[in-house]
Amino acid sequence: MASTGSSSTASTQTRGPATEHDIDPIWMSSRTARQIYALGEVEKDISRLLSLAASSMALLSLPQTDGPEDDLPQGGERSEKFVDVANEYFARLDAIHIAIRSSLAHIRQSRIAPSAINAPPPNFIPPPLGVGLPAADGEGNARGERGLQEERVERDAWKGILDALTRIKEARDGERGDMQTGR
């Protein structure tokens, strides 16, 4: 369980310590859930790592190239700031490395089948509104590329159209009945 501690160590440098009260209880329900939560924290740490890399690159640039909105220090203060950013970068990189290795060790220990964690095929684009229906019907005829939520929205729209047309027909039939009795 060292990964949760090392991952949260890097995370706490900017966000503060996360207590079990701050974390949704579902993430504390099992060791696997805790590992998944730790990987989510690693993902946040990676985005922070990229931000630190951008900051360090900006600090390494010549002061003459700084824009007025950059708000970067000048002179010796710039070098000190670079050292601080570089130290944080490498500390966070180390924490990410340890967390990923720990998660991989957990997966190996849990004996999760590799087929369960394979990446999707190249150029796979998930449907925008959720899981889709099977790609072909029983005879192998291809079906739409829409997601399940999209199919439900379309079904509900057609039901609404049918209800509206039924009410219009009933109203017209009622009007015709009134006209025939009124003659």
Quick overview:
This protein has 183 residues and is mainly α. It contains four helices and no strands.
Beta-strand residue fraction: under 5%
Question: What overall form do the CA principal axes indicate?
Answer: elongated
**SSE order, as H and E?**
HHHH
Radius of gyration: 29 Å
- The computed structural class is mainly alpha
Helical segment tally?
4
Biggest beta-sheet profile: none
Poorly predicted runs of 5 or more residues: 1-17
What is the number of E strands? Answer: 0
State the separation between the terminal residues, measured CA to CA: 87 Å
Give the helix level as a range of percent: 55-70%
Provide an overview of this structure.
This protein has helices at about 1-15, 30-60, 75-110, 150-180. The chain is mostly helical and about 180 residues long. Helix 1 packs across helix 2 (about 30-60) and helix 2 runs antiparallel to helix 3 (about 75-110). The longest helix is centred in the middle third of the chain and has 35 residues, at about 75-110. The model is unreliable at about 1-15 (pLDDT under 50).
